[in-house]
Amino acid sequence: MPQTRPPFDARPAPNRTTLRSLLGGLAIAVGMAVPAAQAQSLELPYFDEGEPKNLTLLGIPSATVAPHGMGFGSLGLTSKRGGVLNEWDGSLAFGLGLGDAETGLGVQLTANITSLTGAFGDSGYFEAKISRRISSGETPLYLGAQVEGLGTWGDASNVPESGRIMATWFPDLSVGGDIFPLMLTLGYGTHLRNAKTDPGVFAGAGIGVNRNLGLSAAWTGETLDLGTSWKFDDIDWMTVSAEINDATDRLGQRRVSITFNLFNPNLFRS
């Protein structure tokens, strides 16, 4: 059974190991807002010292990256293809983490396959993200920048090259003697509004409810996305997440997205 963490004010500032475990387990949004499947993000479970919580933030990219040596992959399914057609479709993403965002720059590289209809892998694009921790203490703060739509091919050739900058903060919420990790992100990006032609602001908040369940809400620049993530006991290499995209049906594109996330923290060593 996990040990109870002391009250917030009594906890020492996280050391390098604590921050490393947080980086390895935070909800990594890898920018999978692809045209065909609209699968939004890849999230990984949060492991802090003492008490694990499944912290997640879905629907928008965070300022954090996968730690060096981690490889990840995801299968995303959506109930409305391209956000418009009432038929299921899917997408895939594969990526890895390089560098160290704690002491220098962390880098995350991702390849996206945008649809599972037609020939496998016949459309997609690449993206890259960098991250840097700018403050530590009890509430680490990260800055990040991401470029999407690189090296497009197939039906994804119309995906524009776009950029985002964001900040992600990790405070804690103390309720009834228990500590709940929070993840807050605020960012600005190109190609977010008006059919992905205009820039906009995005923001979101996530909470680790317990070792299995995480919840989040995010404003993507035009729509509200509500998400939940589930981590299975004794399975540290997989999570499953579900989202209601465009939850208020503001654009008439309300849909359900389900994502299966796999990862290996020791895929390679430097």
Automatic annotation (TrEMBL):
- Source domain of life is Bacteria
Q: Which UniProt keywords apply?
A: Signal
Show which residues constitute the signal peptide: 1-39
Protein name as it appears in the record? Outer membrane protein beta-barrel domain-containing protein
